[in-house]
Amino acid sequence: MTSNADKGLLIVLSGPSGVGKGTVCSMLRKLAPELVYSVSATTRKPRAGETEGINYFFKSKEQFCSMIDKDELLEWAEYVGNCYGTPRSFVNETIHAGKDIILEIEVQGAMQVKQRFPEGVFVFLMPPSLGELRNRIENRGTETDDSIRSRLSVAAEEIRLLEHYDYAVVNDQVELACERIRSIITAEHCKRERIMPYVKSWMEEVR
Ligand code: 5GP
To answer: What structural domains does the chain harbor?
Structure first.
């Protein structure tokens, strides 16, 4: 049996909508090839340039519901009219193989993972300020004034969830945010609890 010390880390990267989780995760894929990236299932249609199995597994509503019924998803949530979920078996296989896996998901899903997998590492991506988050939402250019207001108030509610996370990373510059996330992962690997099982086995050997 694999002990916790041999397992990889499950890292959840989440945060309010508009904070830049997707951008940070894409940069992280380039900067941190040692991490495994969980590919989510979604009912949303592919955007230009997105590839099946790399960006998402694109599913019909029926296929997605069947994954829920068969308990194949570690978590799932509805976001702006589409469903998104994390396939459970790939996550389990990866961490049991001793590799670290990162899930880039919105906050409702992150809270489900927290309940089912409390030993995960929960990283909350923060905007540098509420004003900056507003700019980012406005600069998408797709929102009406009403929609900007409601997205901002949703984002403010989402920021309250920070208390359930282990770390807060400010996304002021994408590369810096990635470096902070990599430092967190390094620190997590150095935690006493992960090292103790090895030390205990050494002690047995010299007894
Ligand atoms: P997008 O449609 O822009 O790719 O993603 C929309 C939102 O869904 C983002 O906030 C992204 O983090 C989130 N998301 C992507 N995959 C998952 C998933 O598997 N589960 C959950 N809960 N959210 C996801």
So the answer is: 10-38+99-205 (3.40.50.300)
